[in-house]
Amino acid sequence: MTKTIRLTMTQALARFLTRQMTLIDGRKEPIFAGVWAIFGHGNVAGMGEALYGVKDELPTYRAHNEQAMAHAAIAFAKTTRRRRMMACTTSIGPGALNMVTAAAVAHVDRLPVLFLPGDIFANRKPDPVLQQIENFGDGTASANDCFKPVSRYFDRIQRPEQLIPALLRAMQVLTDPAECGPVTLALCQDVQAEAYDYPASFFAEKVWTQRRARPDENELARAVATLREAKKPVIIAGGGVLYSEASAALAGFAERHGIPVAETQGGKSSLPFLNPLNMGAIGVTGTSAANHLAEEADVILAVGTRLQDFTTGSWALFKNPGKTLIGLNTQVFDATKHQALPLIADARTGLEELSADLGSYKADAQWTKSAKDGFKAWMKEAEAATAASNALPSDAQVVGAVQRALGRDISVLCAAGGLPGEMHKLWQASTPSSYHLEYGFSCMGYEIAGGIGMKLAQPERDVVVMVGDGSYLMLNSEVATSVMLGVKLTIVLLDNRGYGCITRLQKATGGARFNNLLVDSVHETLPEIDFAAHARSMGAIAEKVSSLADLEAALVKAKGNARTTVIVIDTDPWISTDAGGHWWDVAVPEVSARKEVEAARKKYETALKQQRIGD
Question: Looking at the whole model, is its pTM more than 0.90?
Answer without folding.
Answer: yes
